Amino acid sequence: MDCRVLTSAPRPSATRRRQGGLSWRCCGLALLGVVMFGSAAAGEPIDRRAVVTRHNVVYRHAAAENFLQVGNGEFAFSMDVTGLQTIDREFEPAIPLHTMSNRAWHRFPNREGYQYSQTLSEFAVGDRMVTYADRQGTPAGEYFRANPHRANLARIGLWWEGQAIDGAADPADFTEIEQRLDLWAGCVLSRYKFRGEVVTVTTVAAPDSDAVAFRIESPLLATGKLGVAVRFSYPTGTWGPAVDDFLRPDAHATTWQPAAAGAGAFLRTLDQWSYVANVASDDNMAVDSLGPHAWRLTWPKADAAELTIAFSAAPSPTSVPTAGAVRTAAAAHWERFWQHGGVIDLGAVADPRAHEIERRVVLSQYLTAIQNGSLPPQETGLVCNSWFGKQHLEMHWWHAAHFPLWGRPDILAKSLAWYREILPQARAIAQRQGYAGARWPKMTGPDGVSSPSGVGEFLIWQQPHVITLAELLYRANPTPETLSAYAELVDATAQFMADFALADEEGTYHLGPPVIPAQECYRPAATRDPTFELAYWHWALSAAQQWRERAGLQREPRWDRVVEHLAQPTVRNGCYAAVGVDPFTNRHDHPSMLCALGVLPRTPHIDPANMRRTADSVEDDWDWQSTWGWDYPVMAMTRARCGQPELAVAALLRDSPKNRYLPNGHNYQEPRLPLYLPGNGGTLTAAAMMAAGWDDGPDRPAPGFPADWPVRCEGLQPLP
Q: What 3-state DSSP class applies to 59?
């Protein structure tokens, strides 16, 4: 079932309901995850395949930025224009071609016996001292920051006769390139000539396992002059795009274990971690060593070969699916993905900006789907290692809040479930600091240990994310089962939030010091009451009370007391300051005060007129060079909630270095961050909001877009 609303007809009156100070809108069956606006006659569905495939990515030359990925949320394989990882070292570290998984974590041995307690410092909070792991630059601090770290499972590229052991390739050897990412099938087809001979490679990832499959066609195969090289490295354990250390062959072990014809397994050992690369191919596959940790796979007398490499904890080469089976499964998976959930069709919009918005939206859906699985992704996802590959929980909202809005709550549910696994660690952090409930880390590996940092340890805006994400899942599926699944997380989060707010002599509750806001350029010991965080505390504690009421529980009096007596944001010259103390607003980095009405719905803390002036002020003199990819969706959402849809579109597409989206859809930032998934996720949240609306928003179709844009959409849910 769905709800269809014509752009030529008025939007149905909103059904509003209020509990605990919150409200939401039900537009037809919006709470079931389906909304449709359109200029076509009712009953005429959007041609989803046409919308998606008009944004298929096509490359015709090799370049550092021209990389693609296939994946499934738990596993991803990045490739250059050869369809494999062949010429990446020509472009390192700019081009990050790795084979990465949520299960691939390595840890250097702690030979020095570092203790986490060595990373702690004391800070005054009221009349007591609280410890924070801020000693980032010490040997112990650096060890716990870098460990564990994600590791590259394998580098899989072309091999050719006469190739040097290091595998370096000259991009000039590859001509007449045409590489295409077929979004509808989740498959990459790469055609080119290698030294004058035609090569065709089809690359696809299995939808349900850590496996990548290839079909390679070329007359060079039959002559034995072309094959596949599989190389293994030791992890660098560093911050940045390059994760491979090929100069330490003695630090790890690789052995080839043949099995049935055309099958076998590479057994890998790196310190205390081990894994297996299972290989399955045609019966006539030959496997030969190229040197330490490097092998070539060749198919003599065959002009076409199929190969699947599946990664696991134990050898199982005979159970590896064929490449054909992987292609079939992936095609079915991606067709289901695109046919279900949300779609926005801007094809009828005359404004040329609409095509770029639609391109970013389509590609961002693909990219966020292949990066989001059972762990909240890092900012560079399963591509390369910013922050050592660790999760950044203040970014989880940006990575995953859009999934329920786009009718795909199951994807968010996978990563939100992980918070239950690290709840004991979060409770331990709160207990160590003398707080109730659970304090969620900012930067952490799968073990939930908070990484030492002079900035991250003092961030607090990741705390209410858990409540927000749980609320979005409840709106998508308002059942007792949803309440039960996340009630403990919501309760533990709210307990900490209420206890963290510190009352002064007049009974007003403040946030910090020490605290660093989402705009990270403030000293923790001298900062308090950031505007965004104050509004977020008010909204999230109110939402937590509503969760208690839904479960038939009494409201928590302390939570209400904090909400009712929370400090007001600071207003200067009619604009919201970033923080409540001098310097009030630094004019660079994230303009985070905009989030207080944009990312968040309106709370009693925020006056829309003041926020409009704040947005105008940011537009006028902010240092946009220093902003980051999610700042542009923030501005768009703020402009939309302030009734300025034309300015919302302009903000979403603002011409700025860190708002550049590559042909593959990635949001480029700078050399150390060649992609930035929070920009993609933020774009999807903003676009869904602008198309489907928000609680208490205007009663017109697509209220965040200009009124004369004939926007069509299906499967979207309004933002709170």
A: strand
